[in-house]
Structures are given as C-alpha cells and as structure tokens.
Specification:
Layout lengths: L1 H39 L7 H24 L4 H6 L2 H9 L3 H27 L5 H17 L4 H6 L1 H27 L5 H15 L5 H18 L6 H19 L3 H6 L8 H21 L1 H16 L8 H30 L5 H25 L1 H9 L5 H21 L2 H8 L1 H20 L4 E4 L23 H7 L4 E4 L7 E3 L2
Parallel strand pairs: 1-2
Antiparallel strand pairs: 1-3
Helix pairs in contact: 1-6, 1-18, 2-21, 4-5, 5-6, 5-8, 8-9, 8-10, 8-16, 9-10, 9-11, 10-11, 10-15, 13-15, 14-16, 14-17, 14-18, 15-16
Length: 498
C-alpha cells in the first residue's frame, strides 16, 4: 500500500511538472502576441482605407461593392470587409479611427483563434492546454517571420485580401489531410463549412482559389491511392464553391481597367524565371529565421512522443508528407508566377504574407506526418540522448520554450518592434491630431504636415504633394475637402493652402 502511494505521489508530481512546462510554452508566444495586439491599438487608416470609407458614406455597402467591382477589382470578400469600420461607425456613432482599431484587433484575435483550432488538426491527440500552446506558438512564429507585419495585421486591405484567405485555406487543407490520413468520412457539416470557406477565400484574390482546387483534387487522388471511400460529392461541393468564387473575381469588369495599369505584364517566360528566383529568395528567408527550424523540430519531437493509431500505415503517411510539402511549395511558386505574369512585378509583401502562412503550414503538417510515420526510429534517437525517458516530456517543452523566446526576440519583426517603439507613439499622436484638424477645419484646401515618425509596423505611405493621386484624393473626399497636399518640413499639422 505504501509503495502504491509513493508511486501515485511521484506520478502526480510528474504531471504537475509537465503541466508547468507546457504552461511556459503558452506564456512565451502569448507575451509576443500580446505585444502585437498592443500595437494594434495604434493602427491608423491610410491610403485605400479612405477610398472605401468615402464610398460607404455615399453609396452604402452594396453600392460600394458595385462601384469597385465595375471600375477597379473583383474581390468581393475584401470589398465587404474593408467597409467594416465605416459600418461600425454608422451603427454605433463611435469615431471611425476607434472603429478601425476595434476591427483590426478583432481580425487579429480571430486569426490567433483559427491557429489554435488548426493545432487540433495538426496534433489531434493532445490536451486543450497543448493545443493552445501549439496554436499560439504557430501564430507567433508566423508573425515573427511576416514579410510585412503592417499589412498582415494593421492595414485592413492587406488583412482582407490575404490574411483572411490564408487562415481559411490552411483550415480547409488541414481538414482534408486529417480525414485522408485517418480514413475518415467528411461530414455534411465540415463539407458545408469548407465549401463556404472556399467561396469566401476564392473571392479574396486571384490565386487562393487555384490552391484550394489543387488541394481538393489531391485529396481525391490520395483517397483513391489509399483505397478509401472517395466521397466525390463532398469534394465536388467544395470545388464548385471555390470555382464559383474564382469566376466572380475574374468576371469583374474592373479587372480590365486595373490590368491596363501594368504595361509590363504578360511575359510568360520571364514570369516563370522571376517567380522561381524570387520564390527561392523567399524560401531562403524563411529558413534563415531561427524560429522556423525551432518550430519544425518541436513539431517532430512532440508528434513522435504522442500515441499514434496502428491502423494507419507508415507508407500512407510518408506519401501524404511528401504530397503536402509539394503542394505547399508548388502553391507558393504559383502565387509568385501569377503576380509576376499579371503585373510584371514581383509578388507584393502583403501577398507574401499569405504565401508564408501556406508554406509554413505545409511544412509543419509534412513534419508531423513524417514524425508519425517514423515514430519508432525517432524515439530510438531521442532515447539515446543523456536524459531519462521520464524527463523527456518535460525537457522538450522547456527547451522549446526557451529556444522560441530567443528566436522571437531576435527575429526580424521582434527587432523591428523594439526599434520603432518610441516612433509608434509619435506616429499615433500625429495621426490623431491630423484626424481632428481635418475633421474640424472649415477650410476646403489644406496643407497637411507629413509624419515626423515613420514606424514601418504601422504605416507604409503618407500624404504627398500631388492632390489628385492616392492617398491625397481619397483623404480629401472622405473629409469633404477640395484638396489636400503635403507641406514642407516644419509645417503645422494642418493649415489652409494659399
């Protein structure tokens, strides 16, 4: 009886220690994400935002979508989402700049929650605490490696066009991978949600739909190879919804107007080459960040430590691991190519954000599948380490927590945030002063002082000396002014133009 009590006490201490080690993993990325959420309080509308706010004021929600769809762009989902601050202001009477902050915080929280839900699909045999830890860690790693953090979380057009579809496409991808790996049938509910997600994501930009169609097609192929029930009807519903969304985007009359602005577009061979070169540069940047290797190694070790069902063959898992990685890398190349061919320019940073999410998820899922396929072999390698087997469940999370803290601190984004800390406050104060004076000034032609602080986390452009082009023209229309131009150094925040 005494021996049994000692064993129980020892087991309880081990469980508490393991709980504490996973709590550390929650805390490390949570602190990083909270810093990013704090920066969202400084988010300020700029450039295109004012165009959509003005359109909403004068044409309403549906009218604004119609105007932009026929004259500029076919992305229905962003056309709706980018009006949210204006709709919130109209509904509540709260100042537009506050509504903008609330909108950006809402999108950021939704993205983090989506990554936590995604972690459940990556590692299904985990506790809720472990899923939260993995989801927060993945979200923090993505944010720390973002080509443009500003356009990923703090600028509504970038969020609506690329961050939203990035979250949707990886959730759909994970659902199909999980069902195929375990030989599960897709339920009506999951099929309906994936179809809805496919429709919404397909109407965000021009390449996400192609990713989804490829994912659905490869899911059918994998089920055929594994001799599983194909569920053609479920895959067809998701595929048709995605195709419908893509058709809406490509059918927009405004596309021809937009394409006429890119005279260098249409060079097929050059686009193939440039997409490959720029894609390799992006892949190199991904693996240059220390958080990438830290995250992928942790996924492998955690996966190998978890119990796995015996009915899934290692061959199937290796096939899926290779296929998922190829889809991720191939999809990234396609995104680079489409933009290069359509515009003659390399993929913009806000679109690179979506590519980053897609590629890193694909590599993560591939690493997890690889670890499940070679669980015994990885276990033997780990057992050779100079640590007791009972301590591995504690040591691995602790080592990862410490490594992740260092990687996030010294990441490009981490250093960028620290270097711009003082400038962020100055930028926000200047923006609010400009907003107040433009709102209250009775003058119709105004000179606006440019910002003295330029935190790249929170801004990408400022007013110019050309009143007829972005962002000046849309800012002037929103504030009901005749014209706005940038003043020279030392100009008061807003003054009458002589």
């Amino acid at each position: 009886m005494h021996t049994k009590v000692n064993f129980t006490n020892s087991d309880a201490r081990g469980a508490r220690t393991k709980l504490a080690s996973w709590t550390i993993i929650v805390v490390v990325p949570a602190v990083f994400i909270l810093k990013l959420l704090g920066l969202a309080l400084y988010a300020i509308p700029e450039s295109d935002d004012f165009c959509f706010f003005y359109a909403n004021n004068h044409h309403g929600i549906v009218g604004s979508v119609s105007v932009f769809y026929n004259s500029a762009i076919g992305r229905i989902t962003p056309l709706l989402l980018m009006q949210l601050p204006a709709v919130l202001r109209t509904s509540t009477g709260i100042d537009l700049f506050i509504c903008y902050v609330l909108t950006m915080v809402g999108f950021m929280v939704a993205f983090v929650v989506a990554m936590i839900f995604l972690a459940r699909r990556i590692q299904s045999d985990t506790t809720l605490l472990q899923q939260i830890a993995l989801g927060l860690a993945f979200a923090a790693v993505l944010a720390s490696e973002a080509p443009s953090l500003h356009q990923m979380f703090y600028w509504l057009p970038g969020v609506a066009c690329y961050t939203v579809p990035a979250a949707i496409v990886v959730l759909v991808f994970a659902e199909l991978i999980n069902a195929t790996e375990n030989g599960l049938n897709l339920s009506r509910a999951s099929t309906a949600l994936m179809a809805l997600g496919g429709l919404v994501a397909a109407m965000c930009n021009e390449f996400t739909a192609v990713w989804l169609i490829a994912i659905v097609s490869c899911s059918l192929l994998a089920r055929w190879v594994f001799d599983q029930r194909l569920q053609v009807d479920a895959h067809l519903w998701v595929g048709l919804a995605t195709v419908a969304g893509l058709a809406v985007v490509l059918s927009a009359p405004g596309n021809s107007v937009r394409m006429s602005q890119f005279p260098m577009a249409g060079n097929f061979l050059n686009s193939l080459k440039e997409a490959l070169l720029f894609g390799l540069i992006g892949l190199g940047r991904l693996f240059k960040e220390p958080a990438t290797a830290t995250w992928l190694l942790f996924v492998v070790l955690v996966t190998a430590a978890l119990p796995q069902p015996n009915y899934v063959s290692s061959r199937n898992r290796m096939f899926l691991a290779a296929g998922v990685a190829l889809i991720g890398l191939g999809g990234a190349y396609f995104g680079y190519f489409v933009h290069q061919y359509a515009t003659g320019n390399r993929l913009v940073e806000r679109a690179q954000n979506e590519v980053l999410v897609f590629v890193l998820f694909s590599l993560t899922m591939s690493a997890a599948l690889f670890a499940r396929a070679y669980r015994d072999q990885i276990g033997k390698l780990v057992s050779a380490l100079p640590l007791p087997s009972s301590g591995m469940g504690v040591a691995v999370p602790l080592i990862f927590g410490a490594s992740l803290a260092i990687a996030l601190h010294y990441s490009k984004v981490g250093m960028q945030i620290r270097s711009e800390r003082d400038g962020s406050s100055v930028f926000w104060l200047e923006s609010m002063e400009r907003h107040a004076r433009l709102t209250l000034s009775p003058e119709q032609r105004l000179v606006v002082a440019q910002h003295t602080a330029h935190p790249t986390t929170l801004m990408s452009s400022d007013v110019t000396d050309n009143p007829g082009r972005l962002p000046n023209d849309c800012i002037a229309r929103f504030y009901q002014k005749e014209s706005i131009i940038a003043g020279s150094a030392g100009t008061p925040s807003v003054q009458r133009a002589d």
